[in-house]
UniProtKB/TrEMBL annotation, chain A:
EC number of the protein: 1.1.5.3
Record organism: Oligosphaera ethanolica
Enzyme class: oxidoreductase
Protein name: Glycerol-3-phosphate dehydrogenase
Domain FAD dependent oxidoreductase positions: 3-352
Any Pfam family hit: Fer2_BFD
TrEMBL record, chain B:
Pfam families documented for this protein: Pyr_redox_2 (PF07992)
InterPro entries, sorted: FAD/NAD-bd_sf (IPR036188), FAD/NAD-binding_dom (IPR023753), Metab_Enz_Cyan_OpOx_G3PDH (IPR051691)
Claim: Oxidoreductase is one of the keywords in the record: yes
Protein name (database record): Sarcosine oxidase subunit alpha
Keyword Aminoacyl-tRNA synthetase: no
MF terms in GO: sarcosine oxidase activity
FAD/NAD(P)-binding domain mapped to chain residues: 9-321
Biased segments, Low complexity type: 318-330
UniProt region (Disordered), positions on chain: 318-341
Amino acid sequence: MLDVLVIGGGVVGCAVARELSRWRLRVALCEKGADVCVGTTKANSAIVHAGHSAKPGSLMAEYNVRGNELYEQLCADLDVPFRRNGSLTLCLAAEDRPKLDELYADGMANGVPDMRIIGHDEVLRMEPNVNPEVVAALHTPTGGIVCPYELTVALAENAAMNGVEFHCEAAVEGLTSIVGGGWIVHTRKGDFRTRTVVNAAGLYADVINNMVSTTLLRITPRRGEYWMVDKAYEGAFTATLFQLPSAMGKGILVTPTVDGTILIGPTADDIDDKDDLSTTLPGLEQVLKVASQTWPGLPRRSMITSFAGLRAHLPSHDFVVGEAPGAPGFYNAAGIESPGLTAAPAIAEALCRQIVAVLKPAARADFQSKRPPVRRFRKMSDDERAAAIALDPAFGRMVCRCEMVTEAEVRDAIRRPVGARSVDGVKRRTRAGMGRCQGGFCMPRVLAILSEELGVSPLAVTKDGGASTILTARLDGVKEQSK
Amino acid sequence: MTALTTICDVLVIGGGPAGMAAALAARASGCQDVLILERESELGGILRQCIHTGFGLHIFKEELTGPEYAARYVERVKEAGIAYQCDTMVISLSAERVATCVSPSHGLQRIEARAVVLAMGCRERPRGAIGIPGTRCAGILSAGTAQRFVNLEGLMPGKQVVIVGSGDIGLIMARRMTFSGAKVEAVVELMPYSSGLKRNVVQCLHDYDIPLLLSHTVTAIRGKERVTGVTVNQVDANLRPIPGTERDFACDTLLLSVGLIPENELSRAAGLELDPMTTGPVVDERLECSVPGIFACGNVLHVHDLVDNVSMEAERAGQQAATHAAAKRGGTTGTGDNAGGNCARIAVRDGAGVRGLVPRRVSAEALRQGALILSFRPDRVYRNAVLLVEADGVVVNRLRKRVVVPGEMVELTIKPEFFLETFPKQELSVRVEAEDGRIGAKA
């Protein structure tokens, strides 16, 4: 019998699993997809929000500000790139100026530190590429940027190191309560008997909740479309640039990423299909149009990719965190839309505290808070590179030229705990395929390494699990190559 | 652990057709110390996967496959005893011509060269660059990646195919996929003309009854795990999709052949001035870049139509690199214009209808002393074209061509007698007009 089964391998589920692994508990995580980090977590703005745009008194506000505080240590422990680059919320029209004061007041109420409203000249001194018509801006120095997939993978790895079991392709199909306490969770990978359940199922958290709780939830997928700008523009901005928020969200932002590219987006469109990650012509056009109000020099010809993500939106527009009504031992983390990435460590902390209060486990003396550092060739000095190749020649074979990822790193990403099982899994862990050629060069190489490491035919290697195979057949007369 | 820096006369980065021809020419010009660095496990570059014929008509006067064409050069490289190192990727290049490279067997090396020839070729534009909306499922790949799978690894990337873009690789892959048992539903081209060679349109599409949809674009990609279909729309004169012209194609694969871009990471790293039109480095008539002693040729300079032209251009770069290296070795750094890279020269400007003239700068001496080859691509199809050569804005010569098309590079030879002693002082430009009086779109 498990103590806790976490449903969902996004940033919240993995953060909860890792937090629980500090305690003497039997914890497992089941994920519908073929890898962790394949839902809402993989496609969002990658921002660690300061906390001024959440409604005072909401759970969003509370967990945002607390999550932000936790990020520094968490990312240091897990060897995940994180930068407190600060954010600016731009006021581009004089009549909107009072809205900055409202944001400032909300930020004060939420406990956001060190905020300042700054004028036109100071904004342009800080960010010379911003629209010169800017009137003023709210500067929030605690805002940051992080890589959501590196963080989630790192949380999962670290949780696995500390004993959490991971089960992918294990979609939950039903829950049965056990008389006298506990749950049987029926999944595609079999049944799990567990004392408690954490529902961190993202877009599907309503479906899971509604299987057991007397309070029904209804999540609407709210689509956001994005463009990624080539890292040739690295340095164009230091801070994350928001425009004033609207009813649909924080609007279209322009932000550097920790990897040197610039991300612009998202749109906000409520749709019906929780799996529809398609981009649209009007959506992509809108992103360019609105973002160019922030960045008039936006280089339309230097986009390397576009993508869409789905936010798990609840009508209440607040997080639902805690034990679900009518379902003892079943804990929700539902409606986790922006600032969900920021809030994830705080939600994990809160849920873990509640579960520990009930299960009363002992702390694990051997908990390892750090994961072994990932050796990234692109970040090494030449001397470190020479030394790395001398020890492992696979560091001398370049697999992804755009992002400078070597064969050694790809193999490591597959071999680590909760390792990559698909081309996109390798991409999320190493950045191979994230660069300006978008996998044209590295994809066949990554596919070959996966085939070798996993001991499967190249025809069985997938882009991202399930039926997403890349190759369909061998040419007639071509024999199966011996390994 | 610190890497030692070795020194060589001419360092050639890239062992494809450009690199091999440049190295051979450098050797033929008397340079004994030439080194080729190649990132793949053997020489040959992209030719290794181009198993179709059509290579070598100009240089060998016969029709060869890509691997055959490459093999002839590999043979020559070996016969000439030119040093080459495969599985080696150059990861940075400084303006002082120090290349840093890595390989599994040699580790990290630093090589300081008296002259460098850039011959890294080009890469394909990805989907993101053209922003086709839709899902990002499996089954979407560039035509060159598909070509590698099929021709080098014997693996098929799909059964039912739509190809976006009628560049040469797209056309060749339409035929290749058909040969290999796949059904190619259509080749979709945004422009009103193919961007590939005429012979490829005929031999790869017409001969196999594959529809070429000109002035069309893909407006949606469907499929969650793997592509299940695409929507294609006709476009208007501004290249915008026309509502109501949607056509759905079922397919499991979408191949992209939407343009090639010079591999300019190292060119950027070395601080070379880049040309916004070709996106390759700016060079003078000796193919020298804005940093002295760095030369460029082949597709890293500008994307060519025929490999024969790549080889011929690369020979010029190799000779010049050898000359530069010999001068450096002899202690001179060149004279006059040679002293400071290609900076103090007459500018070559694209006039109306002309895109990406190479070279971008020429010396007064080059114009006076002999034939100078300029190349470019027109911005559209021109029938009964007139190419007007201008010196400081004054037309000095008119050259007629029956037809010029964007899919084929136009070469034109500028001779001293064109100028009747009115040599340009600041600027040489070329524009194109069709005899029907339609002039080129503003460049």
